[in-house]
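Quick one:
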Amino acid sequence: MSFSIVIPTYNRPDKLLKVLNSLDNQQNHYVQILVIDNCSDTNVEEFLKFHSFKSLNLKILRNSGNVGLGGNILMAFLQCQTKWMWLLGDDDIPLSGAVDKVQNALKFIQEDIFALKFNSHAGGFPGKNDFFDVIDRLNCLSYLSNISYYSNFLFISNSIYNVELFRKFTFHMANGLRTIAPHVLASLNLLEDNKKIKLIDDFIIHHGRLEKGEANWSSARLISGVTYLYDSDIPDKFKQEFIPILLNNYISRGKKSTKNYLGFVLRNFERVEGQYFLHKAAGIQKGWFSLKLQIIIQFFAIPGVYDFLRKILVKNNKNTLELLRN
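Output:
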């Protein structure tokens, strides 16, 4: 079964070259490779003119302007010319034999499968005792509520997508670009539509490491994206059950949890649906994290406190500013 490898990229020409060299070594001339340059400072097509490849069936498209992370992911779904697409990050190196693994997996795919998810180091993967062979409408809430599993679900480079099925939700994805993960939005709708994700306990990429100053999926970005998911076109059961659990897991973990809570409350304090969301998140998890969020909500309700802290944090904290942007 034919598939394409589509690589959204922005300002990582050297890392992109490593990805392409790895693919070139796999003699995959029967697979089209499409690079979508999100208007990088260094024109990718010009940069690659100085490099030769043995067998790559390579095509490069350049956006006329920077459409953002989510927008470039959406562009991948719109520009792919085959039924199946390996959506590959520009800093994740395909392992030797990865192209053949994908090709072989697609030979035995069932019609109700809309994505293949390989294992990765970006998040957890179900063990043999977790009874997850596929993600479907019945078990998806249980699966996605595990923050480690969700990280793997969010990650793109271990994923092979049925483009034809995803394009049915193009409008939803376009309206959900602020989530930074339009593929997640479409996936949730497809799960509700009785389609499934096949899990494959094998590796196809080496997860790239970010350099200092590179754009990344920071806590601030993820928290902001999850918040916007609540306002997007997804089934109500995910809004009521999955998203509050996921959000609470994100903002309560690590040494920066207090700052994450502050940023989240600031982002949502003036929104009607945000008020509901704040209290829903506070009620999900018992103990200190829930108490901390409730205390912060009440503290912000004191006249003058919200406006004062908002000005201070927006001035001094780029992550908080990112959360507050509409």
